[in-house]
Amino acid sequence: MSSNIGLVDEYLAKGTWKTAENANSTYSHQGLMQYVSNQIISQYWLEKIYTEEIRQYDHENRFHIHDLGFLSAYCSGWSIEDILLQGFGGVENKIQCRPAKHLNTALNQIVNFLFTLQGELAGAQALSSFDTYLAPFIRSDNLSYTDVFKYVQSFVYSLNVPTRSGFQAPFTNLSLDLICPKRLGDQCVIIGGELRTDWVYSDFQEEMDILNKAFAEVMMQGDGNGNIFSFPIPTYNVSDGIDWESPRWQSIWEMTAKYGVPYFANFINSDLDPEDFRSMCCRLRLDLSKLHCRVGGQYGASPLTGSIGVVTINLPNLAYRSNGSKETFMTKLTNTLRVAKGSLEIKRKLVDENSTLYPYAAHYLSATKHRTGSYWTNHFSTIGIHGMNEALVDLLGEGIGEQRDFALEVLEFIKDQLQEFQKETGNLYNLEASPAESTCYKFAKRDKELFPDKEIPTYYTNSTMLPVDTTEDLFEAMSHQEALQCSYTGGTVFHAFLGEQLPSWKLARDLIKTLTARFRIPYITLTPTFSICPTHGYRAGEQPECTACGELTLVYSRIVGYFRPTRDWNRGKSKEFVQRKVYKYETGLSNENKLQELEKQVAAIQDLPVAGYIKSTLSDYPGKMQASIMFTSRCNLACPWCHNGPLVQGECDDVRIVDVFRHITLTSHKSLVVSGGEPTIHKGLLPFLRILKTAGISVKLDSNGTSPDVLKEVFSENLADFVAMDIKCALENYKRVTVECLMSFARLLCLS
């Protein structure tokens, strides 16, 4: 009893950093209630539910069990289709709302749904295809743009009211398609809980555009004081069908340029597959022999999926215990993953056994329960990592900037372990780049106590990110992060921190267009810093005092996935904000524009038929660890021993020369082998090599040497960095051609 009283005093005196642990929670009476309840429930988990080994690993700071203060699952994606078909309700002796017949009713039901489900789960609540599902109501109600704007404005205001536990707004994420996805295009529209057989969703692009414009303009307008709306976090699905020149999405780009609100899901050049949204919510049984991606990004999720719980591994802590030994580190990582798995299995069992604590979640997950026997079958057990950079510094003496390859090795090792966990338990596992809003500080603070002889920073760098003060070059940072970000199967995102708002909406559009085409990173944000003056509203950049009136402002930036005033951040994140370098993009964007011009030149090249293209070769370019190789069609010789016979005879692949150019400029190695066939017989070779040189591509040319005039130009213009030439002659002339090298070569060949 006395310890509980002490918790109240501790909060009232602001005697712990945990009072500012979550920037979405404000010091308040509700904050006090949440703080006390969280401490008691955390104690319940650790002292009554979890094993001694789990308690020990938690005490030793080897991992962090997220949301210990909640006796519930972590996050979930929900189905708007279910809400439109069933209405809001389904719980005995609680209010039941019939399916919505009008847009304002549908939006109100979604607000009530998200608030209620947020009370049953600890983390983010997500809805997918928001614009696709709601667009038909605009036509059905015969609404003007002004009507839609007012309804959306009321919807957004409602979602930002701090009535959640801890004086917080619900943590909500909306996925917006922009263009009706194929999986929904032929489906009948749902209005009033019934299918309109004369309407299908693909018929409502104009209404989708109206809804998206209204949402973006509401978010851009802000609240009555001009403050940004933190929620819902919109994720726009950027796919091949998007018309970048269309003015209909101008308001989205304006919102991005000014506030940087949205996430952008890269369906153009990443491993994301739009059909995963369907498979994750409809598939009866997932293949447990391989890992699956939880679609939706850092805080989103496909309908009826999510995470049952999250455990983040403290990699620096394991490094400090390994005395500079990679082998010891991997052993300790294996053991820590095993114990983390145990905690997640225990949590899954407890949440499943106490489904009556979550009546609304149980109702809307009842179809999953009916199919599989559990409400939470499609929810992942999530393991995250933190502090890879600091772990590498202690273990290898260099950070992730230099030791990225070992970081990738660790990620692959963890995924192999998770795959084994799936087979062993029958439950889904995924690997996440944990946001770690408070964990970054908590880990470092506790490790300073455990390892007083170590030089430990105020906070650890998030997941496998570069330290925030590494570089100002946006394209350099994304090039480094590309392979790492693509390795995760759970939430991950690259935040492009910018000093202030972009000068135009066109620049915001062009940046997103370039970044989604140039990099395979699945989720991207543009994050400007801005300030809000109580009198003069929005001020670009970090301005602690208003330059117009001298009043103190609220400085906003993205703390992890969402924007909050920097004054509300915990000590670790506050230190990170001070150290952040903001990215410059002008040079990279200029280079990308030049590449686009070069692409046009490549597309105009005549007579350079591509017979095949291999994206990665480790052995064809001496002196290069990796390269790509392009084969041209046809040859002017007909050697009977040629192993590229079909190419010599004129076989061609369906790969275009412009596709080869586009891919090679996107690689990190930027090295191309041009082989054949015989490349020098084609008039398009020299123009292509000149363009490659301009683009900074290293070239190895394979030739039979029968086109000396072409080779002379290659050499005189330095169009190739390496030339490999086949020497062909009659057997009796070999010695004269090779002088004395032939026998030496034969001996070496035999020895090898």
TrEMBL record:
InterPro entries: Aldolase_TIM (IPR013785), NrdD (IPR012833), NrdG2 (IPR012840), rSAM (IPR007197), rSAM_sf (IPR058240). It comes from the Eukaryota. Keywords: Iron, Iron-sulfur, Metal-binding, S-adenosyl-L-methionine. GO terms for cellular component: anaerobic ribonucleoside-triphosphate reductase complex. GO terms for molecular function: iron-sulfur cluster binding; metal ion binding; ribonucleoside-diphosphate reductase activity, thioredoxin disulfide as acceptor; ribonucleoside-triphosphate reductase (thioredoxin) activity. This is Ribonucleoside-triphosphate reductase. Residues 621-752 form the Radical SAM core domain. The keyword Thylakoid does not apply. One of its GO terms (biological process) is DNA replication. SUPFAM superfamilies: PFL-like glycyl radical enzymes, Radical SAM enzymes. It holds the Pfam family NRDD. Gene3D superfamilies: 3.20.70.20, Aldolase class I.
